[in-house]
Design a protein that fits this description.
The protein has one domain. The protein is about 75% helix and about 0% strand. It has about 150 residues and is mainly α. It is elongated, with a radius of gyration of 16 Å.
């Protein structure tokens, strides 16, 4: 069946989408965007560090996921992170009636890739599906919490 949730093309498209998403966020001014919520800007060096760590982890997880079935849950985690982040950009844009930098790639790349991988994994991954979803949600929450700490007012 085409588009197995661990299909190398599908899995490697997700870190590529992340790279494009980072470019949109960087040039769109995402580090400065938290002021819309009355928060301080995210320091650009912190944005780079957070995303360098996340991209490295995503590349390692993608490599592991395509190589071994037992690591397939990592592809599910990546897809969950993409889907969650895409939805977060939509909600943030709606809540503020502004463009949240990252919205375009969140909608055009993250939602389709995340949905496709998760729909396939739902059918194919077995018990590792929930492990991947919970890991993805926890990692996205961790990054969001770090960003909130770094942008707190005062």
């Amino acid at each position: 069946m085409r588009w197995h949730y661990r299909d190398p093309l599908l899995v490697w498209l997700m870190p590529a989408a992340y790279g494009l998403h980072l470019l949109e966020e960087w040039f769109g001014g995402f580090p400065e965007w938290p002021v819309v919520f009355g928060r301080n800007p995210l320091p650009r060096d912190a944005f780079v560090l957070i995303n360098a760590i996340a991209l490295t982890a995503m590349l390692l997880a993608a490599r592991a996921a395509v190589r071994r079935e037992t690591h397939g849950w990592m592809a599910v985690a990546i897809a969950t992170i993409l889907l969650t982040n895409g939805l977060a950009h939509i909600l943030a844009s709606l809540a503020t009636a502004t463009y949240c930098p990252g919205l375009f790639t969140g909608v055009v790349l993250y939602l389709p890739l995340g949905n496709l991988a998760l729909l396939r994994a739902w059918e194919q991954a077995g018990p590792s599906f929930s492990r991947g979803v919970w890991t993805g949600l926890a990692l996205h929450a961790l990054v969001a919490a770090v960003a909130l700490l770094l942008t707190r007012p005062g």
